[in-house]
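USER:
Make up one protein:

ASSISTANT:
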Amino acid sequence: MKKFIVILLVVLMTLTLFLVIKTMLYQAPEDSTYEHLHIDVADEAVQRFAAAIRIPTISYPDRIDTSTMESFLKYLSNTFPLVYQHLEVDTVSGFSLIFKWKGSAPTKDPALFLAHMDVVPIDEASAASWQFEPFAGTIQDGYILGRGTMDDKGSVISILESTERLLKEGFQPRESIYFAFGHDEEVGGNNGAVKIAHRFQEQGQEFSFIIDEGLVVITDGLSGIQKPIGLIGLAEKGAMSMTLSVDLDKGGHAMMPPKETAITILSDALVNLKNHPPASRFNASVEKMFEYIGPEMKWPEKLFFANQWLFRPLIENSLSKSNAANALIKTTLAPTIIKGGIMDNVLPSHAEATINVRIVPGETVASVVDYVRDVIDDPRVKISAEAVNQPRNPTAISPTTNDEFKTIRKSIYQVFGDVVVAPGLVIGGTDSRHYAEVSDAIYRFMPVMVSNVDLEGIHGVNEKLSVENYKRMVAFYENLIKNFNRS
């Protein structure tokens, strides 16, 4: 027994030493020592952005506001005259825009910067919660206030502002650069991004890389990280609205209820899904994220991520406790609509539920439908993946070893300074998913430094962006354009 205890202690000491050494050698795969640049952006640029917010370019579920979109396009041409003078400008579907900034001596495929000009409407139910007029476009206490400041007019105006600044300086890019601004991203992009991408395909145009809205520099991202984290989205989760429905031959009077009704059968199915969520899946984008972030963590988190072969279950359990982190590692199933019944004393013969599904890379629409069917295990519950909108699989995962990813990462460090920059996964959707046929390197990053609370304004109430962040956006795109021409 004594000998066994000694052997056990030796094994534990050896294991501990191995874990500690492995943690000490744990390093990020890329250099993060770049000069922090200071790029001055005048207050007049902020005023121009605020004026753009005052034009309510709203996309409704069944239409867009064409009159305000026309006003917005006119505003752009009047506000950025050098852009319209020196770049080729084309219109798609009446409102979406393509700009081509022709390079002087191109050596590679051009870059493509994406953004969208439309915004979501104001929810009448939450209108009273707004602390300011949603389209006032006022500047107050260091913030630009209004719908679209973050989603996504900040990108549109800052890209054009940076280009106008460079043109004033006489800058001529060696490499060609395109901008594509859709007018209907908030309702799917079918007449904007889809048609722009199709035009590029017809022309045989391919791009070195594409950058669109997406992840941000988050100040309160993960436990164990002291610095803000700049996340570059390598991929997007897939999405579908799944409908579960139950139809019985008859309903009946509620005074003599059977053991099961359409509603209870549907309820049992939903409870089964709640109690049996999809398993965690460390897809490649999340794996890469932790490759970059793990070495920056403090103890003991750094020890866990340096030795995932041993601590993976512990890591997964910890991440699952956070809604945001859980969404990175799992396909999520969120019931959003339930229908059933016509009167309080009548048993319904029909009941249905809509489930919003977000699919991690490595799974598909078909695999999730099969999973849901197996978990429910009741042929009376019919499953439809196309009853509400067109389902989509996760996008491909963009590379991190190419010069283009490194150029974006370098540009973030130069503008934001002492942060951690890493790959990530976008849990929502962007126009960039429509461009998969014209580039293998699609990245999703919005150059702002914000907290999770700040992000609640996107599609919510009191959307706003700090003046400092807008100036960072202008500086970032200007710097990215220059860096792309140096690489």
